[in-house]
């Protein structure tokens, strides 16, 4: 029996595929390669190029293979863009989930692990954020992910599908050998943008606001290593195999770092000066996002290994140095 990884050519997908294969799992990938990269595909996994909104693509995959569980990473992920183009997000993310679940029901596949996000919470009511806290997204991206969770909830009750929603905080870093990593076009995430300065690809990093209610005035985030995230997916599949009930889990380190602290850490890791400019706030950025991941630790047995933020940045630096132009290089 194989595990189908939808979106296995992006960022977190390939790291999860790697961990699954290390565990001896049989892996099948489907990706439309719109944002995914051929170079991120694991040669040990069978690959189908196609869109999960296409019933025929999924019919073919589910018919040609014995699929035990699905891990679902396919989504548009840019909060800012989602405000400008909400329908693009509802179509790809929400409709994509609908087609995937319909196909799973049709082909009697009853386990799904879903890539959710801290954006489902919106502006947090308290820190650290727990799974039982209010979910009130402040952009269409977060709204689509919450809707996808809700669709799974109702389908699980009606059609017996069991799901795990993994609500990631800030995914960061890369596999230790630097063979796969983060490559977004355009890049909007803090760590890759900071590292573009010492790589000589960018003159400076702009801090989006230093007038937040935090000790140094810059936003605080919870950065969690991509391989720790990947491990949580492997554990979530095992949890569902053992008959675990459908549920949502936060995945974060539980520690917060400000934008300024991240820049200082990147200076240490790279040994280079990093020019900084102060800019305006980016709309929709909460001051502070820190996860409580106690539930994932307790219920899934998750134990993140990359607990030092400098080590996290070091793995990203290694990937970017080896692939200054991402997978194109
Ligand atoms: N950020 C920044 N400058 C940049 C990119 C990001 O100051 O060029 C800040 C952003 O405002 C946020 C933090 O870095 O507070 C993390 O942003 P990112 O886009 O990486 O992740 P998000 O928290 O939005 O998911």
What does it look like?
By secondary structure, this protein is α/β, with parallel strands linked by helices. Helix 4 (86-106) packs parallel to helix 5 (140-159). It has helices spanning 12-22, 55-64, 79-84, 86-106, 140-159, 190-196, 226-241, 259-270, 294-300, 309-322; strands at residues 2-6, 26-31, 46-49, 67-72, 111-117, 162-168, 170-172, 205-208, 220-221, 223-225, 247-251, 257-258, 276-279. The strands form four sheets. Strands 3-2-1-4-5-6-11 form a seven-stranded parallel sheet, sandwiched between helices. A two-stranded parallel ribbon has the order 7-10. The mean pLDDT is 97. The site of uridine-5'-diphosphate (UDP) has 14 residues, from helix 6 and strand 8.
Write a compact overview of the structure shown.
With 329 residues, this protein is an alpha/beta fold.
Total number of beta strands: 13
Described by the principal axes of the CA atoms, the overall outline is globular
Mean pLDDT metric = 97
Low-confidence stretches: none
Q: Count the helices. How many?
A: 10
- Taking the alpha carbons of the first and last residues, their distance comes to 35 Å
- Rg to the nearest angstrom? 19 Å
Beta-strand portion reads: 15-25%
Order of strands, main sheet, comes to 3-2-1-4-5-6-11
> Biggest sheet, open or closed, and with what strands and sense?
7 strands, parallel
Bound molecule kinds, no repeats: uridine-5'-diphosphate
């Amino acid at each position: 029996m194989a595990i189908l990884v939808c979106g296995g050519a992006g960022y977190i997908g390939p790291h999860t595929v790697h961990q699954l294969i290390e565990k001896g799992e049989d892996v099948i990938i489907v990706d439309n390669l719109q944002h995914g990269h051929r170079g991120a595909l694991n040669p040990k996994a069978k690959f189908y190029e196609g869109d999960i909104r296409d019933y025929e693509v999924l019919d073919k995959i589910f018919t040609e293979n014995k699929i035990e569980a699905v891990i679902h990473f396919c989504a548009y992920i840019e909060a800012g863009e989602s405000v400008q183009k909400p329908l693009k997000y509802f179509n790809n993310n929400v409709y994509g989930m609908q087609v995937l679940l319909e196909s799973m029901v049709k082909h009697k596949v009853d386990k799904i692990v879903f890539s959710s996000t801290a954006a489902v919470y919106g502006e947090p009511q308290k820190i650290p954020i727990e799974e039982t806290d209010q979910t009130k997204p402040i952009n269409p991206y977060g709204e689509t992910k919450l809707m996808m969770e809700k669709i799974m909830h109702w389908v699980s009750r009606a059609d017996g599908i069991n799901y795990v929603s993994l609500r990631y905080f800030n995914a960061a870093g890369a596999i230790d050998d630097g063979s796969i990593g983060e490559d977004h076009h355009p890049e909007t995430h803090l760590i890759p943008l900071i590292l573009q300065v010492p790589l000589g690809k960018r003159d400076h990093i702009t801090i989006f606001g230093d007038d937040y209610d935090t000790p140094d005035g810059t936003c605080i985030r919870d950065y969690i290593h991509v391989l720790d995230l990947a491990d949580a997916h492997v554990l979530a599949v095992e949890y569902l195999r053992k008959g675990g009930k459908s549920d949502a889990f936060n995945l974060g380190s539980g520690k917060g770092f400000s934008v300024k602290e991240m820049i200082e850490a990147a200076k240490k890791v790279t040994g280079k000066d990093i020019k900084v400019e102060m800019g305006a706030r980016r709309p929709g950025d909460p001051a502070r996002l820190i996860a409580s991941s106690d539930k994932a630790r307790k219920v899934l047995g998750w134990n993140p290994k990359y607990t030092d933020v400098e080590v996290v940045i070091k793995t990203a630096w290694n990937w970017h140095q080896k692939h200054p132009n991402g997978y194109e290089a």
